[in-house]
UniProtKB/TrEMBL annotation:
Its job: Catalyzes the reversible adenylation of nicotinate mononucleotide (NaMN) to nicotinic acid adenine dinucleotide (NaAD).
UniProt xrefs under Pfam families: CTP_transf_like (PF01467)
Originating species: Terribacillus saccharophilus
Protein name, per record: Probable nicotinate-nucleotide adenylyltransferase
Record CDD domains: NMNAT
Length: 189
């Protein structure tokens, strides 16, 4: 049975923290691949700043040089708010010989009790929790913890830096930076 990690998010924009988390979890758990799953609309966040097609393009650019990383547009293709339960159910139907490991930050570990159909989800996949500054990895639900060095990088920080004209090199890949420049994303509003 293949072991695949899933890393969901708005990826607005994708940054080196996302890539580092995916790499570390893949290595530590011996996963065959890690799939990045950009949300069309995440149920726990306000609307994205950037169109879904551009976020897909940025994710593809960010992961292009890693043969173990893939992008899966399943949630963008479905449109609307995406609940993890619906995504996992569909992925399991499409990939019956795959064990999924859903990678989440400590902020989401703490809020698992609020997730749609969480009791079903814990039976369907393995949750993998990674540390995030300012959060504890505390929940009553089963979570496999992967201790990795914490990087204080967030998409909101990158958007703010771009808006202020501050450098973002070494926070995102050059390919993502090129798309941000070309499309004039996150510029002063």
């Amino acid at each position: 049975m293949r072991k695949v990690g899933l890393l969901g998010g708005t990826f607005d924009p994708p940054h080196l923290g996302h890539l580092f988390i995916a790499q570390e979890v893949q290595h530590r758990l011996g996963l065959d691949e890690v799939w990045f799953i950009p949300a069309h609309e995440a149920p726990h966040k306000v609307k994205s700043h950037t169109d879904a097609d551009l976020r897909l393009e940025m994710v593809q650019a960010a992961i292009a040089d890693n043969p173990i990383f893939r992008m899966n547009p399943i949630e963008v293709d479905r449109l609307g708010k995406s609940f993890t339960f619906d995504t996992i159910k569909l992925l399991q139907e499409m990939h019956p010989n795959t064990a999924f490991h859903f990678i989440i930050g400590a902020d989401l570990v703490e809020s698992l009790h609020t997730w749609h159909r969480i009791d079903d989800l814990v039976e369907m996949l393995t949750f993998v929790g990674v540390g995030r500054p300012g959060y504890e990895l505390v929940t009553t639900y089963p979570v496999t913890y992967v201790d990795i060095p914490e990087l204080e990088i967030s998409s909101s920080m990158i958007r703010a830096r771009v808006e202020q004209g501050a450098p973002v090199h070494y926070l995102i890949t050059e390919a993502v930076f090129d798309i941000i420049k070309e499309q004039k994303l996150y510029a002063e509003r």
